[in-house]
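quick one before i forget lol
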Amino acid sequence: MEWTGSVAFVTGGAQGIGLGIARSLARRGVRLALADVDGPALERAADELARVTDVRTYELDVRDRARFAEVADAAERELGPVGLLFNNAGVVPYATAADLTYETWDLVLAVNLTGVVNGIQTFLPRMIGRRSGHVVNTASGAGLVADPNVPYVTSKFAVVGLSESLRLSAEKHGVGVSVLCPGPVDTGIVANTGALHRSLAIRDELVPVVQEFLRSGPGVDEVGEMVLAAMEAGKPWIFTGDDAGPHLRARTDALLECL
């Protein structure tokens, strides 16, 4: 990877894993375009990272395709061609079969899946035209092994499949693709999800359990370094720990048993 002087566009880049990735990129001399729905968080991230590299920030809801195009044009005008795209913005609601509503489906798929599609469709043609670039889409360990959180798992399985297919298709154009499948990571995503829309908020009794689970994993800065190391190694899947291993083996065995 040629880090120094390149330009990265990071959605959800003002907090959580996105900020961890941005910090790792900044340390390598990458110019940063950070997009997020949280304006104050963007200001804090810019204040921090501007001491290390050139930074621009943009308020962006990844569901808004027209705004995505505007922001992409502004970023490339101000920083240069974007060669590194991190489709990282996402939400983590909790809805089992009895909790499902059309509203929940629409919101989760719009952010977690269509938001990734919007990032790809905005920047990929530009990368193909330059015959260079790398895309990292953030999915989840739940995109490889299902749990009862139906809409979340659906969106993340879709991002994994999208990324695997896109990698096969984009490599002949000089564009690499990886998918980040984090396990527990200590972020503020539970609160951020509820702030986006009250219907996505995790039930109060589940919040302590979910937060304890997330805190059991690595911090966002450690994850940022994992992501960049995996990109340098050309890995198609990026993991933040080995906690998914036994579940992946069990799922694979069950699949093969059904052939």
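fyi The CA atoms of residues 109 and 155 lie 6 Å apart.
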